[in-house]
Amino acid sequence: MKILLVVAHPNPASFNHALAAAAAESLRALGHEIVVQDLCADGFDPVMPTSEFSKTAALPPDIARRCAELTAADGLIVVHPNWWGQPPAILKGWLDRVVRNGVAYEFRIRADGKPGPVPLHKLRAALVINTGNTPLEAELALYGDPLDNLWKRCVGGMCGIPRTERLYFTPVIVSTPEQRAAWLAETRTAATSLFPGA
Predict the structure, then answer these.
(1) End-to-end CA distance of the chain
(2) DSSP assignment, residue 31?
(3) Neighbouring-strand partners of residue 167
(4) DSSP per residue over 132-191, as a string?
(5) What is the CA radius of gyration of the chain?
């Protein structure tokens, strides 16, 4: 199985990168091919220019490659921190420029006779891994966990991904080495459960 792993954290020594590495290593051990897009390390430009807005736009080579990697993938893993209840801007730009109409989905008249998005990809499942610093109880009470809605309903629902799972590890800033080790183990288990070996 080919799995696209997208990481959006500016610090290569971050816990986000450790989580991404744990997922990748576990899945490679099962024989999966992992394609990594480390957006910050790649210097990805999140701003969509007017020239890319059309569904039939001629895309720059870097964006076309990323789109091709998305549509070739059987699974998707996205790792990013919770910044103001949202993904970092670089990842929002990736959604705009790569998970786009004409690549991940397109609007058609569906079988029920109503207009709506129809998936164009072959993703079987997605795993989103988030880190934060607000205790989970406060996150839910104060903000309602907007990232869960974004990934499961907006992205997963809009793009027709059959299964979207999410891990949320918080608060990282005061976590112990033992807690981080447990979170890394949970990440390995979630990844291999969602994407088992052949």
Answers:
(1) 8
(2) T
(3) 129
(4) -SS-HHHIIIII--HHHIIIIIIIHHHHT-S-EEEEEE---TT--HHHHHHHHHHHHHHH
(5) 17
pTM for the structure as a whole? 0.95
Closest CA to 150 of 80, 71, 70: 80
Helices (H) then strands (E): counts for the chain:
8, 7
Contacts of 95 by beta carbon, 8 Å cutoff, 6+ apart = 87, 155
Exposure of 35 in the CB half-sphere (CA atoms within 13 A)? 16
Q: What's residue 111's pLDDT?
A: 84
Helical (H) or strand (E) element with 133: none
Rounded CA-CA distance 29/5 in Å is 15
Q: What is the pLDDT of residues 48-59, one digit of tens each?
A: 999 999 999 999
The C-alpha atoms of residue 122 and residue 93 are separated, in whole angstroms, by 22
d(CA 162, CA 145): 21
Q: Is the pLDDT reported for residue 164 higher than 80? A: yes
Kind and range of the H or E run holding 75: strand 75-81
